[in-house]
Design goal:
Elements lengths: L7 H36 L2 H24 L5 H34 L10 H28 L2 H30 L4 H6 L3 H12 L3 H5 L26
């Protein structure tokens, strides 16, 4: 999180706020994993079980960012830690993409049981949608002044959790209303190209990438609020 324009005291304060948000996300992912796995096992829902496993993957991403944020470093050590964290988080994006493809393919191919509605599953999905949405906005707003692509990557992963909450709600809702069990796995495949793109970009992090103005983190309509590399003048080198 090398941001020369910020005084050290301000940067440290922002880093502390980011740590708090990451810790909240980690604790919530633990709750989400436990409830999802329990609800999935009770209802025989592979979708909910997979949702719980996805939460465990996100715990790994949050742990990586905690390692990156914790402690004070000089500029060179901080830049190196930023690149390492970005690469590790990129790896978790690819794991998440692989999980989505495998789970959706098996479900659509009939090798897994059809998703079952679950009141507890709906409750955890709705709760997670609210919590993860708030955490995503908070993390992105901190990633901008800190110019941290590692924090941005973890924030985007939080957003992907939010999107998956919606796919589960859509799948369970369509299944309950019209018996469209295939809506859940089909909707999840829409996220795969984006997950793969974020993962590959994270793994390709280099010294130059960490220093260039082109890597500046933005959070505005021009970058679709974090989804794309920003082309706006405010993010120009």
């Amino acid at each position: 999180m090398n941001s020369p324009a910020l005084p050290p005291s301000r940067r440290d304060a922002l880093r502390h706020k980011a740590l708090v948000l990451v810790w909240i996300g980690l604790l919530w992912n633990i709750v989400e994993a436990v409830v999802s796995l329990w609800a999935g096992a009770s209802a025989g829902s592979v979708a909910l079980i997979a949702f719980g496993l996805k939460s465990i993957i996100e715990l790994a991403a949050g742990g990586v960012l905690l390692w990156h944020l914790h402690g004070l470093r000089n500029a060179e050590e901080e830049a190196d830690a930023e690149r390492k964290a970005e690469r590790l988080i990129g790896g978790t994006f690819l794991l998440l993409a692989a999980y989505v493809v495998i789970n959706a393919t098996l479900a659509l191919g009939g090798w897994l049981p059809e998703p079952e509605p679950s009141p507890w599953g709906v409750a955890i999905a709705v709760s997670s949608f609210v919590v993860m949405g708030i955490l995503y906005v908070g993390k992105m707003r901190l990633a901008v002044p800190l110019n941290s692509r590692a924090l941005r990557g973890e924030a985007i992963e939080t957003l992907m959790c939010d999107v998956q909450d919606l796919t589960i709600l859509v799948g369970v809702g369509f299944n309950a209303l019209w018996g469209w069990w295939w809506a859940d796995p089909l909707a999840s495949l829409v996220m795969v190209p984006f997950l793969a793109k974020e993962g590959i970009e994270g793994l390709r992090a280099t010294d130059e990438h960490g220093e260039e103005g082109a890597a500046k983190v933005c959070f505005c309509p021009s970058c679709i609020y974090g989804f794309n590399t920003c082309k706006a003048a405010c993010c120009a080198a």
